[in-house]
Amino acid sequence: MKSFKLIVHQSSFSSEDLIINLKDYPGLKEKDIIEIYHPENDYPRLLLQVTKVDAPGRGRDTISVEQSIATTFQLRTFAHVYVNVVNVADVALDSVELTFKDQYLGRSEMWRLKNHLVSTCVYLNKKIEYCGGAVRCQVYEMWSQGDRVACGVITEDTKIVFRSSTSMVYLFIQMSSEMWDFDIHGDLYFEKAVNGFLADLFTKWKKNGSNHEVTIVLFSRTFYKAKTLEEFPQHMKECLQKDYRGRFYEDFYRVAVQNERYEDWSNVLLQLRRLFTDYQKIVLQYHERPNMEIPTAINSTAAQGNFLEVLNMSLNVFEKHYLDRCFDRTGQLSVVITPGVGVFEVDRELTNVTKQRIIDNGVGSDLVCVGEQPLHAVPLLKFHNKDSNLNSIDDYSMPHWINLSFYSTNKKVAYSNFIPRIKLPPRKSQEPLKKMYEDESKGKLIKEDDYMHNSIFDYDAYDAQVFQLPPAHSTCVQRVARTKKTSVAGLEGISRRSPPASSIHHRKMSDPDIHHSLGSDILTSNKHGVSEAGSDATDSPISINRLSPRSSVSNKPVIRTGRALINPFDPSHVTVKLTSNRRRWTHIFPKGPTGVLIQQHHYQARPAGEPASRPDQHRSENNISKENGSTINNNNHSVYQVDGNVMGRKRMISASGALSILGTALSTPSTTNNASLALLWGATGEQEWTPALTTANRAIGVDWKSLTIPACLPITTDYFPDKRSLQNDYLVSDYNLLPDDVNADFAKNRAIYKEPLTTMEVFKELVSQRLAQGFQLIVGVNDNEVIESHCPPSRVAPPSCQPAHVAKRYLLSIGRIFHKLTLVGSTITVTRYRPRHPYPPFNIHYRYRFHAPNHDTYEVSWVSFTTEKLENYNWNYMDHYICTRGDTDFALVEVGSQYPLKYWRFRTLLLPLINPATKTILEDESTHCDIYPTPTRQDLDHLTEGFLKMTESYFNKVKRPNKQRQGGVSSSPFRERVGSTRLPDRPRLRIEAIAAAKTVLERSQSQSGECDDTYDDGVIEPKLKANATLLEVVDRMRHPSLGVGFLQQTVSLPSHTFVSIYAIHWLQANMENMTYEKATSCMERLLRDKMICHASGDTLKRYIVGYYMYHILPQKKEKELTDYVKPLGDLQSFENEWMEVEVLGPRSPLLTSETGAIDISGNSTATDDSGMPAFLCDNIDPNYMHMENDDLPLYKNTHLDIDVNNKSDRIEWGHARYQATFRPDQAFEMCIQWAIASGNIVAELIIGWARKAPSCRLQMVPIPADPLALPFTEKSDPLRGPIYVPLNEEPLLRGKTALFEGFPEDTWLERLFLFQEAIVGRFGFIKCTVESTSHAAGVGDHLYVHVTGNMFILIPTTVKSEQKGLKAKPVNKPLNSSRYPVHEAAPSPHEGYITRHVSGKNKDDYDNSRRMGFLWSWNHMISKKWKWSQTPATGDECFQMRMLRDFKHFCANHEQRLSQFWDQCWEVREKAKGIKCF
Question: String of b and e for 1092-1111 (b: at least 16 CB within 10 Å)?
């Protein structure tokens, strides 16, 4: 210890936290941890690590500390401090919580960051940067030796918890009948939920700086009093569902807020109050029509509501997080706010699905009850009893996967502090109370004093026997006859043939009042899935006899399953087998003073027998949460001192209140193997439930931390099955990977050499990838045990059996799947353990009505809830993909493969940057929005040029060094290839190539026909004659100053490479009377005569105009063969390296008179030469509505170098999937895909492109994977749907029977479509052919995107009958589920969707005219991040709402706008007719 003078420095002076001179402190080394403190202060001591040994420059015996740290730790400048070197073990942290916001932090980055932080020193609020600042987080809280500390050192064993202040949060408010009841303070429960709980929550968000993306949904279930379906009118039948008791019901969802981020949420509270006012009226009277009888509608109670369905709705969105990857949020949380008390009646199958999905997906699920807390353990799920037998038993389950909070206001009642916990039953005013009590069936009311003594039945004795525990160490266990399954394990319960004595509590057979059901009774219960399904599928279901003790006095035996009955009023002693699911979330809790994991918001609960001395007790039960629980290791200290009270081990309660004991009542260390058992109740199964948990004077009980900064699923867990379980219950398989051998083979075949990953890098990536896909690392398992028991029975003795040589080993798990990765020498062995009896696959169909923002009605929709078969994931393929660095042999595929791979993707569109109309609309509030002009030829040329520039400069990274000539993109004769910042062996993005191609195409359009001045000004030599030979052309192309301009030769490009579209421009400029068509045919002749060839060396490739690369072949007589660089000779490798795009002109709906090549400079689609709108022209192309078929694939893929700024600590790569053709009048789609890349680094790459796009007159916007979210698509968001905008054609008919009467009837459909296309064009929408994740592409629907990227419109079209036959429509299959009525589908599923919006019309009776309309949907991927100064309308909500309002007005013919447009079009036609005189 030594005294120093303390000075402070700013971070601008030095980035180090501490500057100290070694001479002043002999023996101090770099990396040492020192503590710094004022001797007289009692404040926490500061720990810092010596990172840089340097003199602070202010005299001897001085140390300098960064100013903000000194302030935090109250260190005074120029005062004396003691400096002392500390032992790392003494200051090691048990757990650290890091918070981060506005970024996407994948689980693989979390693990790598954790490894990066090992043996570093952290202090409160320390900012941590990783990957060159791509990952940023801050220290929020640290725990060491049971206490919260202000600083410490992270070691290998420190658990790191990541909490996100920008998550995706779904708040579901259950609008059950209790919402309209009053609580004890006279508030409606709705007021308590919204003005109380939500207001508090939003305040906490603001204070904490949380900026979550929130969706708020009000939901309820309506029952109808009806016996048969016939009682319902036709319009109601579509969405009705029937429950297990034969009651008809409908579920309603009202989306109040969709994916919004607000700084201030007070307006939302106002909006919710408004919705509440008539919510019940609207929902209950939704189907009422004049003069029509409909069955009475009743709002359900909370317990009978659609609780699990709601959780599954959010899971359908959450489990697709890798499809629409947002780069500025991480984490998923669904919160259900209910006026109930935490008891729900549920379907067993749906419970199993929900549980498995919540746990596998690692989604936080919180249940907040605003009702009073009941006197028994909750949450409690009561399974639907489908047995009609009166004596059948109800089955219960206590889910450990729901984090429960009870919210109560701080209001006080002046006269009492008693809180009633049980609701009184409603008074029955009709019948006198006396009659009610004397009712025969209910039994006579007994006088109180006679009650116990004279009763035939001793209630206490009965209870004691029913719930009696077996002796703790019973030596003999009577086996109760059972069928198949014996353990009471949970969903993941492993079916054991012989149960451990303590996991099932059998009754002594001699108990007189308890009739055991042997044999036949069990079989009957089995039929209903009670014992069988129960033991396999739910957490130790509880059976409770429906009959009261009084009624069971009759001589009928109580029918009983083979399981023990469990009492929800005292579940504390029941244990079940511990499972991996139970431990999935435990590592987000700190260790308390007793060495067990605690929940910080559980304040001290009173142990039995201790007086209630502390006034500030919180209701500790309030939150039985995933954050609940303690470690498996049983501490051997028999007595702990807590709060000055010495307590035995029976009910160890830490200062923060978690009960530590594992269900044993011994005060000595337990001899049973408690590590394999867990208590039934609670999240981790280690916290006893006691009646004390339900008593609290200050009932706060909300896990605010989990609701404000939700924790991400921890990257570590600690459960691994024991040896015996592994042998009995798991299938083992393994395979070896030898990265060096694999890569040696691949290197031979590879045209372009890339540095392969080393074996160690591959090994780490295998772990990383599993973490990214939801696995957790298993820590704290004894290595030797694992090695002994897990030698897989493979033919080759696996090296892992000799523990001496094991270099590195990782165990990982997800659900009941375990992977062991072992690295020995240069061999990686992957051992997989899969359950021998996997769960059956579930697929639950569900219909509901939902009302989204901007919609007018509750529309019918449907969804499937399915569980993912994680055991089928093709890890072998994925591991080879990683090993070969994403070689083309192992493409990332999802469609078509038997087991789809999971990988992340981000879809973008390139759109035209500036449209003056958008600016006008933004500036002038009064203007209409249908003022977008048809793009001129020049606009389209500029776009093409910009696209080619984008492709060349940014996607393909090709630079033009000499700018001596003025002119467009194609001006410079030479382009040099710029290598990426990485090593030369890393391939460049192919995406870039794609973009470049586009630009070229556009250029070609601009120059067909007339010569641009690009080349003229520099051309002194005479132009080539029109009849010049091909050789002369080639010679001129090679001319150093007048030639076509070659790309610089690189690894994958041969000598003399040029771009096809620039060659066309060059010919037009350098040859006499050369047209675009002639230039193209000239190049084709060169290709045919083997004078030029595609740059990959593939001779079969035709001459494609666009950003395609070709090279001049050397002729035999030439001498310069020596320096000629050959092409790769491998088309696939070439395409994996460069982005190549064909450039085409706009697609015209009109047939052209002359045949021949497409005129790339073609006019815009909407009109012909005279300006006549296409839908009124005579020469319509009948196939315009159907997509074109070229020999080019619609999409191409290329390898993408992600880490352009060299920030990552590993090799990262991705892929780009892009459209093979570019048309200047359409949006161009590009999808970035990755598996081995850090989200933040991908984000930097994409945002970088988006910043550069405006310089190419383009803007890049993100789009969702499923733009319309129709229920037909497998991955659609169930709470999203398009807005139907009908087109009012009646004013246009004017006496005609059909809109296009007078034209040939077979063109009517086509003309109608062109008319709708003309309307969307006026509103600034352009076509986008998006690779839809939806149904078969044969439906023929056309999608359009607004030039600002804010919204989409779909024009539904009917496929012609002959086409219909060819293309099967698999889309409607899910409807044929037995649970729902089947509806015949309309030709296009979207049409069917539209017809449902037309109120009062049923599918059977709507006529053709009602089908006209549009489907409008928002682009929810656009956040503020995508709003640039050049694109002010992008993401602007007012602009979006205005567009929709104006579009609806136009289509409804407000102010005659639609009629005027129609008339103008006809006028143009009449004029044109007059001119042409036909």
Answer: bbbbbbbeebebbbbbbbbb
Q: What are phi and psi of 1458, to 5 degrees?
A: -70, -45
Report how far residue 248's alpha carbon sits from residue 257's, in angstroms, rounded to the nearest whole number. Answer: 29
Please check whether residue 98 is in contact with residue 161, taking contact to mean a CB–CB distance below 8 angstroms.
Answer: yes
Spatial contact of 491 and 538, defined as CB atoms under 8 Å apart: yes
Encoded tokens for 199: 């207001």
The residue to which tokens 């489908």 are assigned: 386
Rounded Cα distance, 1045 and 975, in Å: 7
46, HSE (Cβ side, Cα atoms, 13 Å): 28
Closest CA to 1351 of 1266, 1440, 1432: 1440
pLDDT at 1393: 54
Nearest to 1288 by CA among 1167, 1176, 1401, 1414: 1414
Q: Are 1375 and 864 in contact (CB under 8 A)?
A: no
Alpha carbons 627 and 585: distance in angstroms, whole number: 7
User: Cβ of 1137: how many Cβ atoms within 10 Å?
Assistant: 25
Q: How far apart are CA 948 and CA 1140, in angstroms?
A: 10
What span, in angstroms and rounded, lies between the C-alpha atoms of 157 and 136? 22
Query: What's the CA dihedral at 659, 662, 664, 665 to 10 degrees?
Result: -10
Q: CA neighbours within 13 Å on the CB side: how many for 414?
A: 0
Residue with tokens 């136009």: 1450
Roughly how many angstroms between the first and final C-alpha of the chain, as a whole number? Answer: 106
| Residue type at 87 in one-letter notation | N
Coil, helix or strand at residue 8: strand
Q: Quick count: other Cβ atoms within 10 Å of Cβ 1254?
A: 17
Q: Look at phi and psi of residue 680 and say left if phi exceeds 0, alpha if psi is from -120 to 50, else beta.
A: alpha
Q: State how far the Cα of 272 lies from the Cα of 266, in Å rounded to an integer.
A: 10
> Is the model more confident about 590 or about 907?
907
Look at 813 and 516; give whichever has higher pLDDT. 813
Query: Do 316 and 1277 touch, CB atoms closer than 8 A?
Result: yes
Going by pLDDT thresholds of 50, 70 and 90, the confidence category of residue 465 is low
Q: How far is CA 178 from the centre of its chain?
A: 33
Q: Whole-angstrom Cα distance, residue 883 to residue 878?
A: 9
Q: Considering only CA atoms, which of 397, 395, 391 is closest in space to residue 515?
A: 391
| Residues β-bridged to residue 909 | 1229, 1261
Whole-angstrom Cα distance, residue 1198 to residue 888? 9
Quick check: helix, strand or coil at residue 449?
helix
Using omega within 30 degrees of 0 as the cis cutoff, is the peptide bond preceding 379 cis?
Answer: yes
- The rounded distance, in Å, linking the Cα atoms of 174 and 1253 is 46
Q: How far is CA 715 from CA 58, 878, 915, 922, in A?
A: 45, 20, 48, 47
pLDDT band at 924 (very low <50, low <70, confident <90, very high): confident
Range list of β-strands (E), 46-153: 46-49, 62-66, 80-85, 95-100, 121-123, 127-130, 135-144, 147-149, 151-153
Say which residues have a Cβ less than 8 Å from residue 1477's Cβ, sequence separation at least 6: none
Q: Are 139 and 1244 in contact (CB under 8 A)?
A: no
> Which one-letter amino acid corresponds to residue 1258?
L
List beta partners, residue 97: 141, 161
Cα–Cα distance measured from residue 437 to residue 446, given in angstroms and rounded to the nearest whole number: 10
Q: How many CB atoms lie within 10 A of CB 1003?
A: 32
Kindly report the number of other CB atoms within 10 A of residue 639's CB atom: 11
Task: Indicate the pLDDT class of residue 55, thresholds 50, 70 and 90.
Answer: low
Measured between alpha carbons, how far is 906 from 1273 in angstroms, rounded to an integer?
18
> Burial, 1460: exposed, middle or buried (Cβ in 10 Å; 0-12, 13-18, 19+)?
exposed
Tokens of 1440: 């979006």
CB-based contacts of 448, cutoff 8 Å, min separation 6: none
Dig out the tokens for 670 from the structure.
Answer: 């337990």
The pTM of this model reads 0.81
